[in-house]
Amino acid sequence: MSSQPYTPPKVWTWEQPSGGHFASINRPIAGPTHDKALPQGKHPLQLYSMATPNGVKATIMLEELLALGHTGAEYDAWLIRIGEGDQFSSGFVEINPNSKIPALLDLSGSEPVRVFESGSILLYLAEKFGALLPQDPAKRTQALNWLFWQMGSAPYLGGGFGHFYVYAPEKLEYPINRFAMEAKRQLDVLNRHLAENTYMAGEEYSIADIAIYPWYGALVQGLVYNAAEFLSVHEYPHLQRWADNIAARPAVIRGRIVNRVWGEENEQLAERHSAADIDQRLALKK
Ligand SMILES: N[C@@H](CCC(=O)N[C@@H](CS)C(=O)NCC(=O)O)C(=O)O
């Protein structure tokens, strides 16, 4: 790898490994790499995931639904170790041909329902349980605007800024500048909106907040990419207020630790099969 100017060849070919944190799992082809069925537990919902920002959207949602009393949202959460290529097993690819976590299997009906893309999982669960998505059409649209905003914007934060600031094999000024500028623009979009609104869709907490918090809320809290100082996040006080408010919700505290295998012992729970699994972890002293 070199930071010398690069002249692309006529035809791109795959040279492996290309370097960087995820080099060993990145490939230019889709499909399974090995035959392996996924485990299944006893609950109606089976989640296959890891506690990355996209993964915790699903576990926070499920914990919020359980907190609201929707017992049909009971779930087994199985760990997919993306660094070890579990997302390329035949069983996982059957649920998500895109080989990315999170993926959900709903076994409650006559036919299994396969759900992938974290935004689709949030919408599916909100509609299934009639919760966390406003009923009023204008407010519902507001929530969906921000849900889709998150799905379209976060790749610039994660795949752009995060990749070049943290994971790339070399620190390169051009991409870090470009994506830091875009990340700050997005933070300002949120800050301005939250100056006028308690939550993303107005007064009602919704799937839009659940989608945005694990990326942008965690970023301003210094939990993602350790970039709070670099991105001067003190410039976004309304976003900070909203993030602190969301982070304190019991379902968020619970959902964050599911399928997490790093950090403090009381914040790690590789698999979740009952509420007691989370209770026991959280009860461990730091
Ligand atoms: N747009 C997808 C993105 C999912 C995604 O990028 N997941 C990452 C972890 S946060 C992943 O599974 N990476 C493994 C890989 O790229 O092989 C979603 O929101 O569900």
From TrEMBL:
Assigned protein family: Belongs to the GST superfamily.
NCBIfam families per UniProt: PRK11752.1
GST C-terminal domain span: 136-278
Domain GST N-terminal residues, every copy: 46-133
Stored InterPro entries: Glutathione-S-Trfase_C-like, Glutathione-S-Trfase_C_sf, Glutathione_S-Trfase, Glutathione_S-Trfase_N, GST_C, Thioredoxin-like_sf
Protein name: Glutathione-dependent disulfide-bond oxidoreductase
Pfam families per the UniProt record, alphabetical: GST_C (PF00043), GST_N (PF02798)
Organism: Balneatrix alpica
